């Protein structure tokens, strides 16, 4: 898809407004002409009253979600119409004149495939930026015993030095050319020679990228995207600049010396990235909580300080020191931080354009800027393609949320001001060591909660209206279950924070728009009410008097707008039916996530973070999540037959519609054979009982030669206390923060 969104026509924007009006009028017409008329004309029994109340509640919530889709979409269309891309010359001049702040790219990784992470790192390393530092945050256990796991970890550890070495030759060449151009042009001579050198360098850089693209093994659509869009796309841009330089030489109109230096700096910056890796689990003084947020927090808390490793009985501890000595960890601070998922890729200009936006005077209040990711094209599985279609729709909706000041951080990628993170940091002292939490991990949707924290601190968030980032979607139902169950868990828990932010803004005199509040509430809670609403519509036999064509009239603009958006994103209009079936089979997954939020609210125990598997092998899905879609089909068929017998044609048609789409979804997205295997594995796992561990033998007395664990005794003074502290440090912290 094109990086810049096409400018929507006036007709498209007009029809968007009409869709919003039709949705609102249809809902009002339904409530007045169907519900109120039934009660005024005929009254109603207690059962009919309760049915009418619940049915109106379900229809209202679903209509509200449809309306929020249309409102966000309309905002996106207005942004696409007004967006004007900043010229390259303006951006180059800005970074040539203004001192650039360091940009640190943090890529959290846990048990990822090294070749997947490698593509992500290359897409970030080839970003054009004056001072780019890339850190791979490896969260795997540092000393695995399994040979296969150990080999994969070693391959991941080699990624940063391998990429650094691959960049060495072009980096040295273009850095030398830049130094020579600066020296030559400073004397007011050699302008034509400098242009010729720049021309040769641009061709050499494009040749280097194209040679890398030729050598790259294309094993799937993700690696194909990397070759075509990251490597060849950047090479084509460099070729275009070379074409302009050649034309300047041929026509005798040379660029100004300052522009020549800007062009030389561009090549030097593209290949200048500094890469390293960091493993927090190698240090006992850092949090080891198993989630992405604390992996990032651990490194953020070290930035801007010098740390000296100290070997203790508990492991290697990091103590802060003033001056660095050999062997110390000197982690420089950074003006900006870019968080990037290990299965995402950035297109050219991502860093320089987003930081350029942040450094404009009118944008000093913006803390986070991102381009909500799109899906990779050409996925081989149906479920990956339809999940990608829903991802592309979300890209549009997030752009519209920015129009209404309701932006949420989408954690796959974002450029963040480090000063904004310092405004929301929480510091706890555990076992004598400070643990800093910038990105909250109270829920498993840490980016959503951090969006509220950033807003409460007085900052804003922005979605940049271009497509500059892409990310993988789960390739099978099992991995999709892990992802969507996590997405559905936590929104309800964050709502009280939203109310607190709104109250704080009102007291400070900042106006809170109703549209912003509605969009934010819908984003955090719509999965809950949509899941329960769909559950009622599927399984409860509502009275036929409650049905009305106006209900369809309220939903029709939503589906038509969605079909139009799908077609604009390169999908089919008929994918609206596939997405509906897709949501049917995801109903138990979403309900499980919502119920987990309710569980956490009552127990106070934080739900474990489940990472989405980023592997090429199929991930088995829980048996219950596979079985429920079959139950939906069977119950829908039973409902259709019963309503047919009672001549309740509306309910019968709706039930049959659900049965057909759910059946197609099971076949297309889960697979009959795969679903049988997963249900069989679920039964086997239920029947299998772990053998009871044997009682531990009494501890043997200390050897006669006096081999005592002296280090632990000297460090803690009590061996049992040392063991308890080692096991409970992160748990105590988690309980305190959850209770708070």
Notable characteristics:
61% helix; 3 domains; Spore Coat Polysaccharide Biosynthesis Protein SpsA, Chain A; alpha/beta; 7-stranded mixed beta sheet; globular; 3-stranded antiparallel beta sheet; 740 residues
What does this structure look like?
By secondary structure, the protein is α/β, with parallel strands linked by helices. The protein folds into three domains: 10-82 and 483-685, no CATH class; 88-373 and 410-473, Spore Coat Polysaccharide Biosynthesis Protein SpsA, Chain A; 710-739, no CATH class. The chain is 61% helix and 10% strand. It has helices spanning 10-42, 46-82, 88-97, 114-125, 147-157, 159-186, 191-215, 221-251, 257-270, 292-302, 350-358, 382-403, 418-424, 446-456, 477-487, 491-507, 514-539, 549-568, 575-585, 587-603, 623-645, 649-670, 672-687, 710-716, 719-739, and strands at 103-109, 132-138, 274-278, 305-312, 315-321, 329-331, 336-340, 344-346, 366-370, 374-375, 413-417, 426-430, 433-437, 460-463, 469-471. The strands form four sheets. It has a seven-stranded mixed β-sheet with strand order 3-2-1-7-11-9-14, with helices on both faces. Strands 5-4-6 form a three-stranded antiparallel β-sheet. A hairpin with a 2-residue loop joins β12 and β13 (433-437). The longest helix is centred in the first third of the chain and has 37 residues, at 46-82. The radius of gyration is 29 Å and the shape is globular. The chain starts with 9 loop residues before the first helix and ends with a helix. It comes from Aeromicrobium chenweiae. One of its GO terms (cellular component) is plasma membrane. It holds the Pfam family Glyco_trans_2_3. InterPro entries: Glyco_trans_2-like, Glycosyltr_2/OpgH_subfam, Nucleotide-diphossugar_trans.
């Amino acid at each position: 898809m094109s990086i810049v969104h096409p400018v929507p026509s006036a007709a498209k924007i007009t029809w968007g407004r009409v869709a919003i009006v039709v949705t609102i009028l249809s809902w009002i017409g339904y409530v007045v002409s169907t519900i109120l008329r039934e009660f005024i004309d005929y009254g109603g029994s207690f059962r009919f009253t309760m049915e009418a109340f619940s049915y109106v509640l379900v229809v209202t919530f679903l209509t509200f979600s449809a309306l929020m889709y249309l409102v966000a979409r309309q905002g996106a269309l207005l942004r696409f119409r007004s967006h004007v891309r900043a010229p390259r010359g303006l951006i180059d001049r800005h970074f040539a004149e203004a001192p650039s702040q360091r940009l640190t790219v943090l890529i959290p990784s846990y048990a990822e495939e090294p070749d997947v992470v490698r593509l992500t790192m290359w897409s970030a390393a080839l970003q054009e930026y004056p001072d780019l530092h890339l850190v791979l945050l490896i969260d795997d256990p540092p000393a695995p015993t399994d040979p296969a796991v150990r080999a994969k970890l070693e391959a991941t550890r080699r990624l940063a030095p391998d990429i650094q070495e691959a960049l060495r030759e072009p980096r040295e060449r273009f850095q030398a050319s830049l130094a020579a151009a600066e020296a030559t042009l400073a004397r007011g001579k050699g302008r034509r020679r400098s242009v010729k050198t720049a021309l040769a360098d641009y061709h050499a850089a494009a040749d280097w990228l194209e040679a890398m693209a030729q050598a790259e093994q294309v094993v799937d659509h993700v690696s194909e995207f990397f070759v075509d869009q990251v490597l060849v796309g950047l090479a084509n841009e460099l070729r275009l600049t070379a074409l302009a330089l050649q034309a300047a030489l041929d026509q005798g109109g040379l660029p100004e010396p300052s522009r020549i230096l800007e062009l030389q700096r561009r090549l030097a910056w593209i290949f200048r990235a500094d890469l390293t890796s960091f493993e927090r689990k190698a240090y006992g003084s850092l949090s080891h909580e198993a989630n992405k947020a604390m992996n990032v927090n651990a490194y953020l808390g070290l930035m801007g300080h010098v740390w000296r490793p100290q070997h203790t009985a508990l492991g290697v501890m990091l103590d802060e020191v003033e001056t660095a000595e050999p062997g110390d960890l000197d982690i420089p601070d950074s003006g900006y931080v870019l968080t990037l998922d290990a299965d995402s890729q950035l297109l050219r200009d991502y860093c320089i354009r987003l930081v350029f936006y942040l450094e404009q005077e009118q944008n000093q209040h913006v803390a986070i800027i991102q381009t909500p990711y799109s899906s990779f094209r050409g996925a081989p599985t149906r479920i990956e393609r339809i999940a990608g279609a829903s991802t592309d729709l979300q890209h549009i909706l997030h752009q519209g949320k920015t129009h209404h000041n309701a932006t949420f951080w989408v954690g796959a990628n974002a450029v963040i001001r480090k000063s904004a993170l310092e405004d929301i940091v929480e510091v706890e002292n555990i076992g004598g060591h400070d643990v800093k939490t910038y990105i909250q991990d109270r829920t498993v949707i840490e980016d959503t909660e951090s969006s509220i924290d950033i807003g409460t601190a007085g900052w804003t968030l922005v979605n940049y209206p271009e497509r500059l980032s892409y990310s993988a979607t789960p390739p099978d139902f099992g991995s999709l279950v892990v992802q969507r169950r996590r997405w559905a868990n936590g929104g309800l828990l964050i709502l009280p924070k939203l109310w607190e932010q709104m109250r704080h803004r009102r007291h400070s005199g900042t106006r809170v728009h109703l549209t912003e509040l509605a969009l934010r509430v819908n984003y955090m809670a719509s999965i809950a009410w949509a899941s329960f609403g769909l559950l009622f519509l599927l399984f409860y036999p509502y009275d036929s008097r409650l049905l009305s064509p106006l209900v369809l009239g309220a939903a029709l603009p939503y589906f038509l707008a969605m079909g139009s958006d799908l077609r604009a994103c390169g999908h089919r209009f008929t994918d609206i039916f596939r997405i509906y079936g897709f949501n049917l089979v995801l109903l138990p997954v979403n309900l499980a996530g919502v119920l987990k939020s309710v569980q956490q609210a009552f127990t106070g125990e934080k739900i474990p973070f489940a990472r989405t598997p980023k592997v090429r092998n199929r991930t088995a899905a829980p048996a219950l999540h596979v079985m429920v879609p079959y139950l939906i089909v069977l119950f829908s068929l039973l409902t259709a037959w019963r309503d047919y017998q009672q001549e309740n044609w509306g309910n019968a048609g709706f039930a049959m519609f659900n049965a057909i789409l759910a059946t197609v979804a099971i076949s297309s997205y889960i697979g009959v054979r795969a679903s049988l295997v997963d249900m069989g594995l679920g039964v086997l796992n239920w029947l299998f009982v772990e053998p009871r561990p044997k009682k531990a033998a009494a501890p043997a007395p200390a050897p006669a030669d006096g081999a005592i664990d002296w280090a632990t005794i000297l460090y803690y003074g009590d061996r049992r206390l040392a063991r308890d502290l080692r096991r409970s440090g992160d748990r105590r912290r988690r309980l305190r923060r959850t209770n708070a």
